Amino acid sequence: MKKILVQGKAQGTVLKSNNSINFLGTVDKKTGIITDKNHELFNKSIKNSILVFPYGVGSSVGAYTIYSIKSNNSSPLAMICQKADLTVATGCALANIPLVTVTDKEFKLLHNGQKITLDTKSPNLITFLE
Prior knowledge:
By secondary structure, the protein is α/β, with parallel strands linked by helices. It has helices at about 25, 60-70, 85-95, 105-110, and strands at about 5, 10-15, 50-55, 80, 100, 115-120, 125-130. Strands 1-5-4-3-2-6-7 form a seven-stranded mixed β-sheet, covered by helices on one side. The longest helix has 11 residues, at about 60-70.
């Protein structure tokens, strides 16, 4: 089921992971680069992307990490998940980063490099630009 957790609008390029993300241990707070060598997005930057991933894991401190990433201008423009966990939802709310959950079918339609618009006020929610 689709849910809007943090309102907003963003247009950008999808950066997708099929792995969960632990913001506290995986993302550099200053640069937004994935630093975990075992993660599918290792060495990629989440900055200015539409970050798509199944769900977040880790402690509540991860919410402050998301806020720090935003404060350092290294955050994604929006996040799309299959399941919303408290850490990601709180972090996005603190940082004012649009956050939505999508169905498994919709998750499978999103791919790296796609240009999309996410608009929580639109009935379509996600529009594919190319």
